[in-house]
Each structure stands twice: as C-alpha cells, then as structure tokens.
Amino acid sequence: MARVVLENICKSFGSVDIMKGISLTVEDGEFCVFVGPSGCGKSTLLRMISGLETVSSGRILIDGEDVTYAEPSRRGIAMVFQSYALYPHLTVRENIGFGLSLARRPKAEIEERVGKIAETLQLSHLLDRKPKALSGGQRQRVAIGRAIIRDPKVFLFDEPLSNLDAALRSQMRVELTDLHAKLKATMIYVTHDQVEAMTMADKIVVLNGGRIEQVGAPMTLYNEPASPFVAGFIGSPKMNLYDGDAAAREGCMVYGIRPEHISLSATDGKWRGTVRHIERLGADLIAHLTVDGLGDLVARCPGDTPMVIGETLFASPVAGKEHKFERGAIG
Amino acid sequence: MNSRRQLFTGLAALAATIVIFVLPFLFIFLTAAKTKQDASLLTFTLPQQWQLWQNFMDVVSARDYMLLLAYFNSTVITVAAVALLVLFGAMVGYVLQRRPSRWNTLIFACVMIGLMVPPAVVPTIWVLQWLDLFKTRTGMVLIQIAYGLAFAVLLFRSFIATIPRDLDEAAIIDGAKPWQIFFRVILPLLKPVTVTVIVVQSIAIFNDFTNPLYYLPGRENVTVQLTLYNFQSQFGTEFNLLFMNILLVTIPPLIVFIFFNRQIVAGMTAGAVKG
Amino acid sequence: MSRTKSPYPYWFILPAAVIFTVLFLVPTLASFWFSLTRWDLFSVEFIGIENYRQFFREPFLIQGLFNTVIYAVTTSAAKTVLGLLLAVLLTSGLWGQGFLRTVMFFPVLVSTIGVGITFTVLMHPTRGIINVALAAIGIHGPGWLTDPTLALYSVVLVDVWKGIGLATVIYIAGLASISPEYYEAARIDGATRTQLFFRVTVPLVKPATVTVVTLSLIGGLRSFDLIWAMTRGGPGFSSDVLASVIYKQYQAGFYGLSTAGNVILFALIAVIILPLTLWFNRKEVEL
Fold first, then answer.
1. What is the pLDDT of residues B29-43, one digit of tens each?
2. CA C57 vs CA A96, B204, C266: distances in Å
3. CATH number of the domain bearing residue B97
4. Interface predicted TM-score (ipTM)
5. Which CATH superfamily is domain A4-230 in?
6. Is any Cβ of chain C less than 8 angstroms from the Cβ of A54?
7. What is the mean pLDDT of residues A214-240?
8. What is the number of domains present in chain C?
9. Helix boundaries (H) for B210-238
10. What Cα–Cα distance (Å) separates residue A259 from each residue in A199, A227, C197?
11. CB–CB of C2 and A69 under 8 A?
12. Domain that holds residue C247
C-alpha cells in the first residue's frame, strides 16, 4: 500500500521559511494534485518527496517507511519533469533503459522491459531516435516511459504539461488519466493550472505561501471553498469576491458569488448595474458589470442572451450558492 | 556601383593580405625545397633544383633522428596533458557551476591567477626537483595541466551552465551515483566545448617553447620547438634544412586548423561577446 | 539516519586542485621568499631586498623593465586598433572576406619559434626580402634587428603580424553580437558612416575591446619566445624584456635575481591589469 504521509514538513532557506508545517496523507492509488500560484511551494514540496530537496524538519513516509533522509533512488518514486529532462545524447531506448543500465541489469532484461513499455506508450517505432527528433507529445511519453520502467510506488509529476500547446495538453490530460486508471499507482501531480487540477485529480491540495489552504475532492473545493483564496483560485471565470462594506452588508468578512451563480434580469434584482464589457464565447457569455455598492461583477449566462454595452441590468445571486467567509482576505 | 567598389576594395585587401600573410609561408616552403647554396642567398625565387624530399630526409635523420624523437616526445606530452586537462577541467567546471558555495570565490580567484600570473620558473624547478619530476615528461605533462587548467575550467563552466539541471536530477532519480551523473550524462553532452578545449590546448602545448626550455632540458627529452630552436644555432648556414624544419613544425597546426577552424575560433573568442 | 549527500562532490575538484596548488600556487608563493635570497646551485642565503635593489640599479635591468612596458603597450595598441578596423572591413560583405579571415588567423596557430626564425631571415639587413624589396623602390632599408634603437620595434611588428588574426576574430565575434537595428536606427537618425563607427560600433563592441586589450597586454608583458627567437634580447640589451632577463639570470645561475625578476613581472602585470579591469567595469555601470 503506497501511501505517502507527510508529517509537519518545514523547509527554510536561511531565515526564510518556504514550507510552514505541511501535514498530508496521499492514499494508495490516489491521483493527488498540488495546485497553487507560483512561489507557493508546491514544486518544493514535490521535490522534497522525491528527495531532490532536503527537509528542514518533519517526516516523509512512503509505504509506511520513513524516507525523510533516503536517497532519491531508494524511495520507490519516479519523476516526470517539466522540461522532460530526456538525456539528449541517448536514444529513446537508452533513455527509458538508463536507470536499469545504471543498476547493471542484464541487457536482455532491459531490452524486454523497454520494449514492453514502448508498446504501451506507442513508442515502439521511435526507439532508435534521439529526443531532438521527437514531437512534444512523444517526448512527454518517453519521460513517462522512463518513469514507468522504474516500477515505482509513487509517480511524481512536476508541471509536465506546461510546455505543450493547448490542444496537446487536453489530449495528454486524458492519456495521463487513462494511465492512472491502468497502473493504479499513487500519483502526485504539481500544476499551477486549476483546470488540470479539477479535471484529473481525485484529491486536490491547494497551497499558498508555504501552507495548505485546503485539501479535498475537486467538487468539494468548488462547492465548499474553505477560504477566499481557494474560492478565488478554483473555478473559471474567477468567483466575484468582495470585502469591506459590501461584505459587511451580507454579514461576513468576505462575500463571494460565482459568475455562473448569478441571474440577470432587465427588470428587477438584488443589484443594479451597467454592462461594461461583453465576452461572447459561443456557448457562454461572460458579462462584466459595474454594480452600485459592489464594484465589478462578472456574470456568466447562456451564449444567446441579448445584451449591449451600457445597458442597465439587475443581478441576483442564486439562492444557496453564496459564500460567506468569516476570515481571510482577498488574495 | 557599390558592388564594384566592394570588388575593388576586396581585391586590394586580397593583394595586401597575400603579400603580408601568405608570402612568408610561401618563402618557408620554397626555401625548404632548395639546395644549401641556393637557400643561403635568402632570395624569394623558385628553387634552382627541387629537393624537398632529400631535405626532408636530411632533417629527419639529422643528429641521430632527433626530430623523430622530438615528435614522439611532443606528441606524448600533448596527448597526455590534453586528455587530463579535459577531464580535470570539466570536473572542476561542473562542480563550480552546479554547487554554489564559499569555495567558489576561492576557485575563481585561482582561475584568475592562473590566467594572469606568469609562472615563477625557478621556484617551479625547485618544486619539480623536490618531487623528482624535473627533466621528466611526467613533470612536463603536469606543468602543462597546471598552466592550462584556468582556461579549460572557464570554458567548461560556461558551457555546463547551458545544460539544464533537470538532467542531473533525472539521473539522480534513475539511481545514478555522482560519478555516473558526470561520466554518463554530463561529459557526453560537453562534446562541442571538449573539442574546442582539445584543439586549442593541443596547439598551445605542441607549440610551447618556453616551458620545455625551462623544465625539460636534456637531449633525450627534446620537444619539437626545442629542436627547431637548437637547429637555428647549429645549422645556422643550412637554411634549406632549417626551413624544412619550420615547414614540418607548421604542418600539424595547419591540419588541425583545416578541420577545426570553427572550434578554434569559438574557443579563442569565448568571452568576447558577454565580456 | 544520514543526510542526502550532494550529487556534486568536492573530490571532483581534488586532482585539479592538487596539481594547480603544487605546481603553480606553491612556486608562486615561494617566489616571494626566494626573491629575497642569494640563491645558486649550492646554497640559499637570505639577503633581504638586495636583489630588488640590484634590479633597479643596473641600467640593463631597468631597460628590460621599460622594454617590457613598451612592448606590451605597442603590441596591444596596434592589435586593438588594427583588429577593430580589419574586423569592420571583413564583416562589410567584402569579396573574399572568408578567405582573408582564414589566412590572417593562421599565423596565430603557427609555432612562435618558426615565425621568429622566418622573420629573422626576412629582416636580414642586406639580403633579407624586406630590404631587397625596399631597395627596389629606392628606399635604403634599416637594419631591422641589428640596429639597437629599432630591434625591439621590429619584434613588435612581427608580434602584431602573428597576433592580429586573433584580435580580428574576437572583434568579428563582438560585431556579430551587435543587433543590426542599432545601425538602422542610427541611419534613420541621419548618422554618417564615420559617426556610425564612432557612435555605434566602438561603444557597442566594448566587451570585445576589453578582451583584446586584456589578452594582448597580459600576453605582451609575459612575451618571451618571439624575442628570444629573433634577437635574444640584443643587440646588447636593447631588446631585453623582463621574461628574457629572467631566463638569462637563470642560465647564469643567479636564481635569486631571476626570481626577483619574476616577482617584478608579476607586480607589473598586477599594477597594469587590475586598475584597467576596475576601470573597464566602472564604465560598464555608467552605461
């Protein structure tokens, strides 16, 4: 059972605290996504699990074993890097088999295992090519192949899709999800893209400023964000968040309502506003309104809603979809 | 109009360049082919009688085939010194670039000292004698390494900076030991800069005169440049043989130059752009 | 429970560090001590600054010091100015410029001794080709290497001949890194060719200038092979430089004096190069 348990992990460079006491359990076979803005510590956390980065204090357990100070290669992990980090001077075959060749496994065994993995990843016809001669998606698959061959208990992914174009990215999201279903291994995946987190994760860990903001299933985070930060980070377009007087009128510190939970009407509603800008996305329409007493408000409505700039409209929150936070600030 | 002017300037520059830069080499070649009397006139004429081959044999066999011994010594010293320079220089450049620490300032200071400070010759001889390496090829090899390290480290360091650290980390996760990361991942990727270091240092060490003069005296250890220097005083009147010797000494760099022109220029101009 | 070890172990530095320390740093440090001794084949005796005193008393030693500076400054100045002009010429789309670059660069790689001997012959006062050619157009050529007032400068000429190719390719690399947009912008502003050269090229090619000046100054100050092959410091001591003085004193068995010469050369390089480097860097900040 390859559970990954982090116990009160701290990390500091000099007097700067990067990680401030992270405790977390990733269950066996779970697809867990670390998400957060850049500089939140998500990559550092992943690198500490891999052993590429040392921990200042705390414990890391993989499969019940304390690996806090173990060599990266002794932790039963494999990692896919953002840049793929394929060895440019080696062929695809040698790249995938590199770890086994370091371990001095017999040639025949390496050959067989590389062959099998290449087949699953549809790389068989590319085995003798150098990484330079591969497309982005193919390189990505080689990197995954190199991870699979280690037969790891835990796969670590460090923003593996951020170098791909949008179309390939959504294709690779599907491939990775399929791979997870097939391998049933524990996977920890770092991204700054909340769409990747929402679409792929069993469990999302939202990090901010070296702390965990919230842990939960994608829809839990969407429906019940624990803080204004999570509320603003998960979901697109962003949730409308208000503090100060506007929030005080709703009886809280921070008041939030998602664009898709606003109904617009020409005649009456809770708020009265003027249409400032319209984004027509086809299926949807994103309306930017200037509302008296609130400021900017973004609303999402069906794509064929008639609307013109400068028009006066009334907006109302959908009942039960409002978020009222007693603490926290707009990030 | 403009292109015609360029053609004329080009032709003028070409003529001047040929007179200034090509004629001396032509002179070397022609004199090397002449007879003794013909050569002693020092004129820039075709040989009255071509005897390139005979002069070649005479130079090679002179003083008990000393030139062959010299080529052997120079080759051994150059090959050994350059091989170790590449290895040690790359290792230092690698750690220097990859591992920031207090030591780096010290290493950089040493590199700057190595590039600027002229070697203290007599104390070096004193050290070599103490190590029993004075007048030995081993000593000469070590000296060439010591003097060439600064250049090699600088080139390797700046090249290694272009190799992403992800590769090291991928290798670490694949279970590579530190020396395996270096020898199986990094070193193969250093090929372009390694070629540059090999070529530039080979030429420098092969052409080196001063250091063998000080550290490698004695007949059995002669190097190519020292033989040439000795021929100058001993065969002062036999210009045909002297110039045949110069011709022979010029050919190895010429061959290297033909094949590695680009790498040589790259190595020697490194630092010109970024300062 | 052991901490993860660095994948970049310090023992990688060890072989290089040992060789460099033993064969470079130790002799350099030892030279300060030995320069204060009367040191010959048989004994070492501390005599304080007597060697230095002698160095600055003997006219021929002082001349060696001056010659070193003259040699370094003239070769370096010539290589810098000519190198830049040639580089501009050879990047202007000239017919045959690739060939010219190649031909000019080749002497850089040729044995200095070979070059020295060749030019000694070419500069022969009566039969040398240079003077024969000058006589053909009615000029009585000088005794290039036999005239004591001229010998040093004749060697300087050959040094420039041998080294100009390197300065040129360094400048060519520097010119290649200047974006053509600067020239286009300046031309739109109405700059003439001369203005382009002095207002755009010269300031922007500065990194290359720094390299050329520093390299050729250090090389010039340490120069030995060419002078030794061509004049052996003569006639008399007229073309002696510090490096040849060091060798002569070593040959004569005055090891202490020779080492003092080494320390003086070392100090001379420091005195010239360090302020220059600081000055180059300060100008950088102002830009």
1. 999 888 888 888 888
2. 73, 37, 19
3. 1.10.3720.10
4. 0.89
5. P-loop containing nucleotide triphosphate hydrolases (3.40.50.300)
6. yes
7. 92
8. 1
9. 210-215, 224-234
10. 20, 18, 61
11. yes
12. 38-286
